[in-house]
Write a structure and sequence with these properties.
Blueprint (H helix, E strand, L loop, with lengths): L3 H13 L3 E6 L2 E5 L21 E5 L5 E8 L5 E4 L2 E3 L2 H14 L4 E8 L9 H16 L6 H11 L3 H4 L4 E4 L10 E5 L7 E6 L9 H11 L3 H21 L2 H20 L10 H15 L4 E4 L6 E5 L4 H9 L6 E5 L6 E3 L5
Helix pairs in contact: 2-3, 2-4, 3-4, 7-8
Bound molecules: ligand DP6.
Length: about 350
Amino acid sequence: MDNEKTKTKVIQKMRTGEVKASAIAHPNIAFVKYWGKRHTGTAREKLNIALNKSVSMTLSDLRTYTTVEFGDYDRDQIIMNGEEVRDERVIDHLNLIRREADIDKKAKVFTENNFPTASGIASSASGFAALTVAACKAAGLDYGERDLSILSRQGSGSACRSIFGGYVVWKKSKISSESYAEQLADENYWELRDLIAVVSEARKKVSSIDGMSMTVQTSPLYMARLEEADKNANHAIEAIKNKDFDSLGQTIEYDSLLMHATMITTTPALLYWAPPSVAIMHAVVDMREEGIPAYHTMDAGPNVHVITLPEYTDKVEKRLKEIDGVKSILNCGPGPGAQEVYKHLF
Ligand code: DP6
């Protein structure tokens, strides 16, 4: 991706000192989940090339805000939610962008989430999408959405979908240059709601990166899910195109349960569910029996996303609040893609 023009631009920027940029990105909820990377156990695993196609909705309201500056620092400095951290994944990602831009300056990174980090609300998706957009701009790389999606993916797989707003598909591919996300419909296309029942704000014990590799290697159900996942993705795409909420909801719930079946049958077992998570799933099924259209889905954490239509939001929220162990409800709709912003955090 790098070329002479880009390099000249970067050098010019470095001379004028314009090396700071900021971006905002939103997490996404996968309607059909990514779980499993190509080349498990080798360095290529770092490329985060998904074994299956996935479909998501980018979320409004929740966001990561990131400012990156390349400068005369002696080391990369990362300040996450006000605290300095040493995050190897962020440093690897900065290295990737430095290689693309052919620069060697260290970076100062300020990043803030307005929602709980690493608890099944994909903070890595918004985090790496915002980091990619801000760091590329700060490094003088003027990349389009496809290249930003490919780069973000290498930070965290699901981040490639957060580059886009609304409804998004991450296509299946064997090679890095073709493993990127694309927008199916923008955030104004269809007003679905995602009510996130937060049962824990703690960090998850097993990260997605470790969990996925354990599942691919040990779950006897993994291959069966892999075949189903692509079919589920195609069903979800059709349902979104037809705005068929029940068909989409059934696919969402089925794919989440199928992914969790592979997690539970991993050795050692990855049981991300907490007792309130199970109570919420039961409540969602009960609501449906009463005529309320609602479907549940969970990522690698105990919080439950309940997908519903806007006119049922109040009813669903009220019911979820009554469940023991539900600490709070985050109410999101379809949100925009990652964007550069011109106000910096430092
Ligand atoms: C269950 O994108 O966090 O949320 O690529 O290792 O960073 P890495 O994994 P990550 O995994 C997300 C898994 C999921 C499903 C999904 O969002 O598709």
